[in-house]
């Protein structure tokens, strides 16, 4: 496939396909493209959805024809350069209490990898991740790339209720659940931070392009930071 | 910025909530990169005509009443507009047809029964229902707990009250004679033909699958809500096993490995990774949102240019 490519996504959207594989180095390009679209479309821009390799550009069809929007995107792509500010990326830290009571799949990972808890924590917290996209729920950030040794398939049966703050892994990605929701990822710990709050100025703590570090904390520190120590309900533990 | 105070007043009391009644405006925009979906009326067509009848601004907040069951009591005299599904509405037991403006006097009871044609009705008031916008919008998204009359994404509940702008009510009493043209009063019981703009992965579906996609009759599945509508019929085969998740537009028709397409509507997740046949036009999304489970629909390919022209004519007529 020749890239970049502009793909039709309905009467008022184009999907800009920049890359064909997941790579942290994609993000400065996608961030630059977002910024250029905001400048070029101005108030005719309705929404932008950056995600891994693509950007969905939703424009106001009352003001721009599909051809006009396409031409505008083509001219942006003709001289797109990665965004150096975004390339540096905002650094965000997530304190995490890694414990079986709030991260029941730590045991699954230990069994699969042969590593002990300490080694697992060091592997997960020892890497800086990039936010590739937000989706699934407000503030839910898809981050990568996880060390191959920690790559685990999702649970066969998703949980009905994953507690808010749960830090999880699936495949080569990691995330944290902003609020209680259903979910099929492997839970390995919990963060005390509120990841999404519509009343805050920066509603989502994590943004696409951010660089994220997980910082292990003990139970006392987790509680001091306001964390909820209630265990993941035993009845909901994975049976896979 | 205007310093004018807006005076809100209780207009309607919820006597019975029914299965699902929510406040919707045009939708929540500019926040999808945070994983926040767009929301807004599942049937934009009927919603926009209801606002048009009262000469409201585009996207003024109206009630989306799903399947009926809702009973409202007027707390003051109100001019209201009802468009979309025929949910067997009555005013103090007298039948009330959709696609018109009517007056509900203080103390009168507006009751919705069961679906006669279509599944979603839109009730508009002059100036739109009032509320505190969340992330710039009143659109109620229950899955996210955002928006609506409460701000917390809750549907209407018994005993709650809906608020209106009294100045807008006063201005509305002059009464412009607006009507919905007959051709826009859609027959939701008729077979639905949904315009679909073929997308980038269309060639990744097998030839027989593409033939089936556009020639078979599809049934609307019971798994149909504001996130999406599943269609059941012949199995569609795609040569792509999976894709990297990407932003999903309103009306995208994705085909998961079971080969049964899902049309994604207003409350869809913001990103997804299944191959797509393409994107339904906005008016096709509206039409689909009025289909009952078991109803037959067909997919018809439509060129982007023609689809955009149709949509722009719709916007031009209703944003005026």
From TrEMBL, chain A:
What domain of life does the native source organism fall in?
Answer: Bacteria
Domain (Carboxyltransferase): give its ranges. 4-206
| Single annotated GO MF | hydrolase activity
Q: Tell me the InterPro entries matching this sequence.
A: CT_C_D (IPR003833), Cyclophilin-like_dom_sf (IPR029000), PxpB (IPR010016)
Instruction: Tell me which Pfam families the record gives.
Output: CT_C_D
Q: Which UniProt keywords apply?
A: ATP-binding, Hydrolase, Nucleotide-binding
The record, for SMART domains, names:
AHS1
Q: What is this protein called?
A: Sensor histidine kinase inhibitor, KipI family
TrEMBL record, chain B:
Coiled-coil region(s): none
Q: Name one GO molecular function term.
A: ATP binding
SUPFAM superfamilies reported in the protein's UniProt record? Cyclophilin-like
List residues traversing the bilayer. Answer: none
Keyword Nucleotide-binding belongs to the record: yes
Q: Where is the Carboxyltransferase domain?
A: 33-318
Q: Does the keyword Transcription regulation apply?
A: no
Q: SMART domains this protein is in?
A: AHS2
Q: Give the keywords, sorted.
A: ATP-binding, Hydrolase, Nucleotide-binding
Q: Which NCBIfam families match?
A: urea_amlyse_rel
Official protein name in the record: Biotin-dependent carboxylase uncharacterized domain-containing protein
The species is Onishia taeanensis
Biological classification of the source? Bacteria, Pseudomonadati, Pseudomonadota, Gammaproteobacteria, Oceanospirillales
């Amino acid at each position: 496939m020749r890239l970049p490519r502009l793909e039709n996504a309905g009467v008022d959207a184009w999907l800009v396909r920049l890359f064909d594989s997941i790579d942290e180095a994609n993000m400065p390009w996608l961030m630059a493209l977002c910024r250029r679209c905001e400048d070029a479309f101005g108030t005719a821009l309705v929404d932008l959805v950056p995600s891994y390799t693509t950007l969905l550009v939703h424009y106001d069809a009352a003001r721009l024809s599909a051809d006009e929007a396409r031409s505008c995107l083509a001219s942006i792509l003709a001289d797109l350069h990665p965004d150096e500010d975004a390339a540096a990326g905002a650094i965000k830290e997530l304190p995490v209490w890694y414990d079986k009571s709030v991260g029941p799949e730590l045991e699954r990972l230990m069994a699969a990898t042969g590593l002990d808890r300490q080694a697992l924590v060091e592997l997960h917290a020892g890497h800086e991740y990039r936010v590739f996209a937000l989706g699934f729920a407000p503030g839910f950030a898809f981050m990568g790339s996880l060390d191959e040794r920690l790559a685990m398939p999702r649970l066969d049966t998703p949980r009905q209720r994953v507690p808010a703050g749960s830090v999880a892994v699936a495949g080569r990605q990691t995330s944290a659940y902003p609020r209680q929701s259903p979910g099929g990822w492997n839970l390995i710990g919990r963060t005390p931070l509120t990841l999404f709050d519509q009343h805050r100025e920066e509603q989502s703590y994590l943004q696409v392009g951010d660089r994220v570090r997980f910082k292990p904390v003990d139970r006392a520190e987790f509680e001091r930071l306001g964390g909820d120590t209630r265990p993941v309900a035993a009845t909901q533990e994975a049976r896979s | 910025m205007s310093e004018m105070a807006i005076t809100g007043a209780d207009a309607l009391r919820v006597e019975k909530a029914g299965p699902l009644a929510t406040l919707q405006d045009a939708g929540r925009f500019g926040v999808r990169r945070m994983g926040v979906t767009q929301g807004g009326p599942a049937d934009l067509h009927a919603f926009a005509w209801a606002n048009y009848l009262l000469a409201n601004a585009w996207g003024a907040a109206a009630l989306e009443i799903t399947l009926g069951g809702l009973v409202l009591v007027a707390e003051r005299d109100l001019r209201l507009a009802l468009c979309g599904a025929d949910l067997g509405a009555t005013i103090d037991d007298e039948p009330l047809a959709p696609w018109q403006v009517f007056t509900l006097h203080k103390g009168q009871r507006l009751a919705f029964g069961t679906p006669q044609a279509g599944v979603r009705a839109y009730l508009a008031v002059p100036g739109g229902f009032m509320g505190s916008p969340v992330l710039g919008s009143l659109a109620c998204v229950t899955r996210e707990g955002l928006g609506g009359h409460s701000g917390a994404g809750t549907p209407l509940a018994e005993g709650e009250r809906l608020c209106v702008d009294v100045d807008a009510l006063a201005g509305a009493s002059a009464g412009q004679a607006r009507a919905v043209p007959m051709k826009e009063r859609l027959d939701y019981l008729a077979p639905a033909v949904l315009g679909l703009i073929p997308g980038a992965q269309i060639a990744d579906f097998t030839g027989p699958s593409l033939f089936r996609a556009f020639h078979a009759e599809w049934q609307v599945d019971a798994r149909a809500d504001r996130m999406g509508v599943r269609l059941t019929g012949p199995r569609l085969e795609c040569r792509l096993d999976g894709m990297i998740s990407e932003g999903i537009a309103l009306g995208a028709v994705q085909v998961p490995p079971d080969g049964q397409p899902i049309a994604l509507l207003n409350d869809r997740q913001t990103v997804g990774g299944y191959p797509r046949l393409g994107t339904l036009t906005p008016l096709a999304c509206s039409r689909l949102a009025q289909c009952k489970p078991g109803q037959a629909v067909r997919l018809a390919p439509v060129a982007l240019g023609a689809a955009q022209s149709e949509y722009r004519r719709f916007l031009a007529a209703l944003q005026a």
